[in-house]
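Model it.
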Amino acid sequence: MIKKLQELLNLPDCKIDGCLIVSPENRFYFTGFESSDGALLVTKDKALFITDSRYIEAAQKAVTSCEVGLLEKYYEQVSEFFENAGAEAVGIEASRLTVSQLETLENVLPFEFVFDNTLDTYIESLRSVKNHAEIESIKAAQRIAEKALLHAYDFIKEGVTEKEIQLELDFFMLKNGAEALSFETIAVAGKNSSKPHGVPSDYRVQKGDFITMDFGAVVNGYHSDMTRTVALGFATDEMKKVYETVLRAQTESIKKYLPGVPCSEADKVARDIIAEAGYGDYFGHGLGHGVGVEIHEYPSVSPRSDTLLREGFVVTDEPGIYLPDKFGVRIEDMIYITEDGNIDLTEADKQLIIL
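Modeled.
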């Protein structure tokens, strides 16, 4: 990963000759090592990862893509590294640093810091295109989540609470190979399912409820993300109509997840189907987002995104309809964009299931 970043730094039109990477997510992406403190320093032909005494022994054993050093006098070490490399214009993560952090860097270090999103754009372009190992980690995380879903189907019955469903999913994933949860699991039922990011409560599920579960696992630092909506006991005709509309919106929009297609075009397919069914006012969020080291990554699949889908992207497709004070439905898969098509990384059944 670091070598690919250095290739970008060596392009003739590159306006930076060094990078200061401090965010935990990007440090992990380039080094494969997780820590709460540290910095990755990169120039056109050198790279150094510095971290404190809590992590140094583990980092020296785990990080093989660059030199590893003990973080002792941070600013002096950063200054020495870039000065020895002859770097003058140093790119920083403009989208992740605060104004105060930038001010400190400019006051303490003698370099020109470039914060016009140059480095962010480089990192986005690298992180959005997954290699084989990254795809395998995402798939492994997804398989754990799918087993948790089947477990939840056996667990859910009239009278259990949303919080209990959430905890059952979480415990199963962590017990069966997940190193962490992708995010705080959403498990909402009945009227609460009309809230796209509702918070699980003490509400006890009843027959005739839709139950929406949005959750994921982490394996090797990579996230999975899926949503399934099921009914308990029975589903009314209106519930079935809404569910089938969302399913059709997802099925048809996935067909547009192809290299070279604008994200907005894929979003429009799902949005038009939902609008034609009379529910256009009840689908307010974008159709999807990238998934990887973080649960929400570049690109965004929305009406405003002109990003072209590329081979190697892993993006969600998650249309929904949310009827206030009634119920909501969302179905979410992760789609891997291939050279000439796509692969749905989500294997869980998405036909309407009535428990």
